[in-house]
Amino acid sequence: MSTALETFVRTKDYLVCVDSDGCAMDTMNIKHIRCFGPCFVEEWGLQACASYALKRWNEINLYTMTRGINRFKGLVLALEDVARQGAAVAGLDDLRRWVQTSPELSERALEQALQEKPSVCLQKALAWSREVNRRIGQMDDADKRPFAGVAQGLKAAAEFADIAVVSSANYEAVRQEWELYGLARHVNVLLAQDAGTKEHCIAELMKHGYRKDHTLMVGDAPGDLDAARGNGVYFYPILVRHEDESWKEFGEKGLRCFFDGAYAAYEAQKLGQFKNNLTQGEA
Q1: Which of 9, 10, 162, 245 gives 188 a disulfide partner, CB atoms 3.0 to 4.6 angstroms apart?
Q2: Which value, to the nearest 10 degrees, does the dihedral of the CA atoms of residues 189, 141, 224, 257 take?
Q3: Rounded to a whole number, what is the largest CA-CA distance in the chain?
């Protein structure tokens, strides 16, 4: 298995790209429900409206069309929501401005912004993000499992396609999870956040000569769809709350349509399901 774009070698005519968190691995929900949301409530002292704050956190980050949003963008949306409910959020404009203008939304960039201009909200955002990372790091391996049907789907896809993990998560975490459950054996290349955006990774992989109609992105969030559309390739959605069923259908029907050249009409149907599934929780 290659771990970089530079060392990847094409072996087949088809390419299947697969996201990790929330798509292949059942890790996204648990990270937000156990780590991101509770840390949000604790850092901003939202215990009095915790039920509402946690509900909105999960809706923003898991169950609506903003699923998969950058953590700091999601934080701004959640803070704006609780502020409208009367919670005191000092310096929110500072965080909003940083999110809107910073070329990089990361802890490193946040630290630099704080060195340039102190801000209580930016400082709290950094403390929150670090605590989230600490709690995620303490999660047991038993809490990081693939969805049912992932191994079977990847095995079936690998008969005719090269398989690329294309994730925006931490490389080492993705590698450990895919190796722990034996998924890495089906993978030709593993690309994480250090390799660039998902759209960039797909574009670089396609330079090896894959046709657009021979390339498929499997993902669970609108950002995955955007990465596919940015390269003019097909998309297969893993539906939140219906992940096991999605992977079962992928192995039994999705791949057959893809390899038989009949994917366009099938994709239109799946995209409708994907968007409907993520708009049910929107206000």
Answers
A1: 162
A2: 70
A3: 58
27 vs 45: CA distance, rounded Å:
26
Residue 63 burial (CB count, 10 A): 20
pLDDT for residue 283 is more than 80: no
Task: Specify the range with the lowest mean pLDDT, choosing from 53-57, 112-116, 140-144, 268-272.
Answer: 140-144
Q: Which helix (H) or strand (E) holds 17?
A: strand 14-18
Backbone angles phi, psi at 132, to 5 degrees: -60, -50
pLDDT tens, residue by residue, 206-241: 999 999 999 999 999 999 999 999 999 999 999 999
Element (H, E) at 70: none
First to last CA, the chain: 44
**Higher local confidence (pLDDT), 161 or 69:** 161
Q: Which amino acid belongs to residue 18?
A: V
How far, in Å, CA of 94 to CA of 117, rounded? 10
In angstroms, rounded to a whole number, what is the distance separating the alpha carbons of residues 264 and 257? Answer: 9
The answer to whether 160 and 259 have CB atoms below 8 angstroms apart is yes
Classify strands 25-26 and 145-146 as parallel, antiparallel or unpaired: antiparallel
Residues 208 and 225 sit within 8 Å (Cβ to Cβ): no
Q: What is the pTM of this model?
A: 0.86
